[in-house]
């Protein structure tokens, strides 16, 4: 138990103490059962207990978490197996005057899991409050629409419209014929765009759930992984390019592509637009890359090499880009100088699969199933 407490404090993970208590109960059961001479492990009870002990003296020597780390959450704590945290959104609460507030008791963190479940956590205590279990495959994207519903897109090709009060889905969209990969909504929350891996984009009235117009089909596209609405245009990320689409006509307005020094295409994994730049996280032939384009002309401004297998997620906060890698690390970049900061955050034991911002002061990262946890970071920490 003491070793579990030490690990819990070092890794900012309160659930480790509960795991340690369960481990002690298991060891106690093994020792008590060995009192019977017929027990197969009676002669080797010390060895059996040693192999089953999860928190030994050596576990307390693990590297401490960086100062930027605030807390850890384990969405798979009550599950038989760890599951990838595929998507996350933080929804601020509503104050008495109807305005949004991060100090409200109703702020929530929603996690879409590879198991097909959606886990909902209290945004102040970070304890699980509810879960949604209707999806038949992984929930890979989440989107808040207004104050009453959250849309959950799944690899079972459906989009579930979840009521934020009852955590049930009385409505769902079943029109996509391929895996739903991402969703985005206009600034006034009246029109939503949903896409599938096969390059089909559908446009919906968020109140009536009726199609606003015919679907947009991106030509020669089999890997549409993410979309974002900005200033009346759709920014679409495929493995080969970033395409900017006119949503009213479906016409392609411009395209960002990149070939490395050997004239091989790099794989585009994620993107964001910030100020006047387009930032694209890539997987290169030998390492990860972060490409910076002029947002207007889509000309390459800079190419930053990153010592990792690839950049999987990006979040911008003030003058800093947080780049989550496929090796579970977070690389930080200054948006003004486009240079990498010296410190690299050791975030997870698996790839970073999801990122979001919470309460305007925290960055949340979700990881692959080998780790399966959510880490909470101070957005304004001093990286010196």
Low-confidence segments = 57-63
Shape: globular
Strand order of the largest sheet: 1-30-29-28
Cα(first) to Cα(last) distance is 34 Å
Q: Can you give a write-up of this model?
A:
The model is unreliable at 57-63 (pLDDT under 50). With 384 residues, the protein is mainly beta. The protein has helices at residues 2-11, 15-33, 45-52; strands at 69-73, 85-91, 93-94, 100-101, 108-113, 118-122, 128-132, 139-145, 149-154, 159-163, 171-173, 180-185, 191-196, 200-205, 216-217, 224-230, 233-238, 242-245, 252-256, 267-274, 277-283, 288-294, 300-306, 311-317, 320-325, 329-334, 340-346, 352-358, 362-367, 374-378. The strands form 8 sheets. Strands 1-30-29-28 form a 4-stranded antiparallel beta sheet, with no helix packed on it. A 4-stranded antiparallel beta sheet has the order 2-5-6-7, with no helix packed on it. The protein contains 3 helices and 30 strands. Helix content is 10%, strand content 44%. Helix 1 (2-11) runs antiparallel to helix 2 and helix 2 packs antiparallel against helix 3 (45-52). It starts with a helix and ends in a 6-residue tail after the last strand.
């Amino acid at each position: 138990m003491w070793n579990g407490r030490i690990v819990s404090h070092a890794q900012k993970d309160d659930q480790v103490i509960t795991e340690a208590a369960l481990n002690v109960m298991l060891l106690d059961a093994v020792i008590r059962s060995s009192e019977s001479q017929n027990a197969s492990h009676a002669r080797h009870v010390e060895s059996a207990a040693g192999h089953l002990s999860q928190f030994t003296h050596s576990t307390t020597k693990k590297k401490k978490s960086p100062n930027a780390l605030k807390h850890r959450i384990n969405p798979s704590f009550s599950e038989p197996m760890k599951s990838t945290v595929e998507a996350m959104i933080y929804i601020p609460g509503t104050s008495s005057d109807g305005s949004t507030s991060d100090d409200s008791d109703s702020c929530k963190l929603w996690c879409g899991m590879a198991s097909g479940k959606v886990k909902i956590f209290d945004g102040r205590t970070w304890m699980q409050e509810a879960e949604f279990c209707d999806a038949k495959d992984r929930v890979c994207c989440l989107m808040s629409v207004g104050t009453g519903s959250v849309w959950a897109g799944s690899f079972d090709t459906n989009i579930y419209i979840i009521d934020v009060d009852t955590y049930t889905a009385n409505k769902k969209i079943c029109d996509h014929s391929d895996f739903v990969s991402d969703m985005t909504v206009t600034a006034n929350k009246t029109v939503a765009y949903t896409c599938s891996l096969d390059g089909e984009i559908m446009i919906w009235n968020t109140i009536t759930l009726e199609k606003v117009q015919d679907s947009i089909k991106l030509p020669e596209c089999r890997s549409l992984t993410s979309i974002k609405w900005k200033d009346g245009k759709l920014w679409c990320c495929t493995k080969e390019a970033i395409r900017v689409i006119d949503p009213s006509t479906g016409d392609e307005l411009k395209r960002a592509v990149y070939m490395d020094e050997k004239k091989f295409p790099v794989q585009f994994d994620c993107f964001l637009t910030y100020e006047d730049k387009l930032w694209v996280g890539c997987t290169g032939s030998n390492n990860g890359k972060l490409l910076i384009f002029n947002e207007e002309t889509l000309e390459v401004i800079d190419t930053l090499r990153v010592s990792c297998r690839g950049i999987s997620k990006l979040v911008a906060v003030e003058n800093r880009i947080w780049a989550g890698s496929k090796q579970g690390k977070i690389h930080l970049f200054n948006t003004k100088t486009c240079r990498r900061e010296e410190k690299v955050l050791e975030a997870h034991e698996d790839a970073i699969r999801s990122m979001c911002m919470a309460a305007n002061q925290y960055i949340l990262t979700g990881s692959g199933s080998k780790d399966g946890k959510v880490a909470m970071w101070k957005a304004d920490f001093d990286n010196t």
